[in-house]
Design goal:
The complex is a heterodimer of chains A (205) and B (280).
Chain A (H helix, E strand, L loop, with lengths): L3 H19 L3 H39 L4 H19 L9 H35 L3 H16 L6 H41 L8
Helix pairs in contact in A: 1-2, 2-3, 4-5, 5-6
Chain B lengths: L4 H21 L14 H12 L5 E6 L6 H17 L3 E6 L2 H16 L7 E6 L4 H9 L10 H9 L6 E5 L6 H7 L9 E4 L5 H10 L4 E3 L2 H9 L17 H35 L1
Parallel strand pairs in B: 1-2, 1-4, 2-3, 4-5, 5-6
Helix pairs in contact in B: 1-10, 2-9, 3-9
The chains are: A mainly alpha (205), B alpha/beta (280).
Chain lengths: 205, 280
């Protein structure tokens, strides 16, 4: 379904922000500032709504006895602990020692541990990808193998040569592929945005 | 034998952790060196910091992510200590919840280590992602407790008060967002960054174009930068211990062996299939 009002709004906001970037004008700047503030408020509201929805979902899981009750209870307990520590009367918010402790002693180590587990799971996934006889997977794993081997921190002439080769791989071929992907995504985003701005495609297409 | 293999594979992560723990305790090996052999990247960062003048005011966009912060943390802490050793004044701002959590923890750590509080300013969290960055260029909102000389300067001049921008990347709002949203809207001030390796291909074009003056983007470049510094008393603000190369080497060799074995098995299977077709 086409929404001309929404499209017109997007066009106006886009043009206003571009004009503000290109033209120095106090009134224009103030108007653009209002739009930016509105965007910030919407984003903040959306973030709060997302957290609220997560909490509501977990409460519903526990209430209706669906999913994993232990993880739902842990999520709710974590949210309650952080909210109680940061929002209780007299609290210094994120500067509160209890909040600092929750972050430094629990959140950061748990996050780092989960990321550390990726070492094992990524290796397992890479092996499965090769075993499935996927051609792309094999190329991907071979590239990872070569890069990892070259990054081994050996001292001396051999180490220098390997580090130079790894640098060339990261900055040359791998960087080129990565940047090509980014440019492709950027072009597609620009085309889609232009289509939306020009009313050639509805926002919910 | 084959029946036991799955059980052995399940034990492999535990064996790896045990091996890493043992390697952590062993003395340093002279044939291993974490620091990059070529210190050009580290020298570029030092030269950039040298060029921003005395007692610079630096805006620190602190948005690492929890997963990769372990990779960049020693370099981030050393760079911040280096800036404080240069009598810099640092204002921290975060645009992601993770960045705010980590930034808040780092500021608390500075407090515990008795860093000079008049040189630190916590600008807090700005919601709105890119819109928040644009808003930052329009005016810097100070916290209630920001009433020192540094806070007054920032309050008066906004983002124009700063002599340099340091972006601690890792999250979505890293150096790329700062260069895209902030750099065109403010004057010519140097942007430098610390990022995990995964962001390196993304930031290299900005480095080549000069939009970013210097980036420490790999653990080896970070180690080379840390090696060049003598922070004296402010060394207490850095990580208490350097990453050990031997556990890193073991982890990398395990990865190489696991990937190599999979690729080798695939190559052997391919050769056998080819021979079978030729024989048939």
């Amino acid at each position: 379904m086409r929404r001309p009002t929404l499209t017109a709004l997007v066009v106006l906001v886009g043009l206003l922000l571009i004009a503000d970037l290109l033209v120095v004008n106090t009134a224009l700047g103030q108007l653009a500032g209002i739009v930016v503030d509105a965007a910030i408020l919407v984003a903040a509201g959306a973030a709060l709504a997302a957290v609220g929805a997560l909490g509501a979902r977990r409460i519903a899981d526990l209430w209706r006895r669906r999913g994993d009750p232990v993880s739902a209870a842990l999520v709710l307990a974590g949210m309650a602990a952080m909210l109680a520590a940061g929002l209780r009367p007299g609290s210094a918010g994120t500067g509160e020692p209890a909040v600092q402790w929750l972050i430094a002693a629990l959140l950061v180590p748990i996050g780092a541990s989960l990321f550390g587990l990726l070492f094992v799971t990524t290796l397992a996934a890479a092996r499965r990808s090769v075993a499935s006889r996927s051609r792309e997977g094999t190329v991907l794993v071979a590239a990872a193998l070569v890069t990892t081997a070259l990054l081994v921190p050996i001292f001396g002439g051999m180490g220098t040569w390997m580090a130079d080769a790894a640098g060339w791989l990261l900055g040359g071929p791998i960087g080129a592929v990565f940047r090509g992907l980014l440019i492709g995504v950027g072009l597609l985003t620009a085309v889609y945005a232009a289509r939306t701005l020009l009313g050639m495609a509805a926002a919910d297409e | 034998m084959n029946d036991r293999m799955p059980h052995l594979w399940r034990l492999a992560p535990l064996v790896l952790i045990a091996a890493l723990a043992v390697a952590w305790q062993l003395p340093e090996a002279s044939w291993l060196r974490l620091a990059a052999p070529d210190a050009a990247v580290a020298d570029r960062m030092t030269a950039t910091l040298d060029s921003i003048g005395e007692e610079p005011r630096v805006l620190v966009g602190f948005d690492p992510d929890i997963g990769t912060y372990a990779e960049t943390r020693p370099t981030v802490r050393t760079l911040l200590a280096d800036l404080l050793a240069r009598e810099a004044r640092l204002a921290f701002v975060s645009l992601t919840a993770e960045g705010r959590a980590l930034g808040s923890a780092e500021l608390a750590r500075f407090g515990r280590e008795e860093a000079n509080p008049t040189r630190l300013l916590d600008l807090g969290f700005i919601p709105g992602a890119e819109a928040g960055l644009v808003d930052l260029t329009r005016g810097v909102r100070l916290p209630d407790e920001g009433d020192g000389a540094f806070a007054r300067e920032v309050n008066a001049a906004g983002i124009g008060a700063f002599d340099a921008v340091l972006v601690i990347g890792g999250n979505d709002l890293g150096p790329r967002s700062w260069i895209e949203q902030v750099a065109p809207r403010i004057g010519e001030i140097p942007f430098v960054a610390v990022t995990p390796t995964v962001l390196l291909p993304e930031v290299q074009p900005y480095l080549a174009s000069g939009a970013l003056r210097a980036v420490l983007g790999t653990p080896r470049d970070g180690a080379a930068y840390r090696e060049t510094l003598d922070l004296g008393n402010l060394g207490r603000l850095t990580d208490p211990s350097e990453p050990r190369p031997l556990p890193l080497l073991i982890g990398m060799l395990v990865a190489v062996a696991a990937l190599g074995q999979a690729l080798g098995a695939r190559a052997i299977g391919y050769l056998r299939a080819s021979r079978s077709r030729e024989a048939g």
